[in-house]
Amino acid sequence: MDLGTLGGQIFGWAIIIIAIMMEPKTAGTFLHLPSALITFGGTIGATVTYFPLKQLAKIPSLFAVALKEDANNPVDLISSLVRLAEKARREGLLALEDDLQNEKDSFLRKGIQLVVDGTDPDLVRNILEIEISYLEERHEEGQEIFKFMSSVAPAFGMIGTLIGLIQMLTTLDDPSTIASAMGVALITSLYGSMLANVVCTPIAGKLATRSRKEVLLKELMVEGILSLQAGENPRIVEEKLKSFLSPKFRDNLSFGKKDQERVMQSAS
């Protein structure tokens, strides 16, 4: 689990609740069912209207993606591709077929299978890039749900505020109720802002970050797969794939010195 996402949500809500509870005399006024119904109910209603139900059914899995720790480590992936490059250079591409059964990543497995089957390199690249393109589109669909909710939640908060103000104006003959009525009218705006800025916008941003990282890994796999097919020196493959990493992570590559020495001997 990604402790950053979970911790951020807990911390954000905790700070808001603590700030409210610091004034215990007025804390109860922040709980107002009609305001919650207008803000949360209106946001949900607009979202259900805007998006297909099949797309909305993915919301629980999207939350899971946001909370899940990154599964793929680029350093481990590069090390794995370099070892495959060594094997392909020493035993031939057909020898990689034995590694397909143990490969968990379906994208990498598909790419290696295309190479083993003797598919033209340009066609391999086109097939894998098309898959990456559709992967990005699917990810954007999930992000759009939370972006939409983030945009309409404050609007429904304002609608609730206007409703409250209208109701308040009908009781102007009793000045003692104006202050409390104004406070209740503003609660819906508070609910809308919290829903947008504490939940929806951060989740959309987290999903976008996850998507960028996954696409980068897929692009790394494409270059590694094509390098395997081209029969490039494993050391060259390593240096090429390390360019996908930031400089501070390149020295952590798990492809150690013994592996490098073995590769250089097999390539000579």
Keywords:
single chain, 268 residues, mainly alpha, 13 helices, 79% helix
Please, could you describe this protein's structure?
With 268 residues, the chain is an all-alpha fold. It has two domains: 1-31; 32-76 and 111-267, no CATH class. The chain is 79% helix and 0% strand. It contains 13 helices and no strands. It has helices at 3-21, 24-27, 33-50, 53-56, 59-67, 74-91, 97-100, 106-116, 121-169, 178-230, 234-242, 247-250, 257-267. Helix 3 (33-50) runs antiparallel to helix 9 and helix 3 (33-50) runs parallel beside helix 10.
- The overall pLDDT average reads 83
Question: Any idea what the radius of gyration is?
Answer: 27 Å
What share of the residues does DSSP label as strand, in percent? Answer: under 5%
The main pleated sheet reads as: none
* Alpha-beta classification: mainly alpha
Q: How much helicity do the residues have?
A: over 70%
H/E series, N to C? HHHHHHHHHHHHH
> Which regions are unreliable across 5 or more consecutive residues at pLDDT < 50?
254-268
Tell me the number of helical segments per DSSP (H or I, 4 or more residues long). 13
How far the N terminus sits from the C terminus, by CA atoms, comes to 45 Å
Number of strands: 0
Task: Write down the overall geometry.
Answer: elongated
Identify the quaternary structure here.
single chain
Provide the domain count. 2
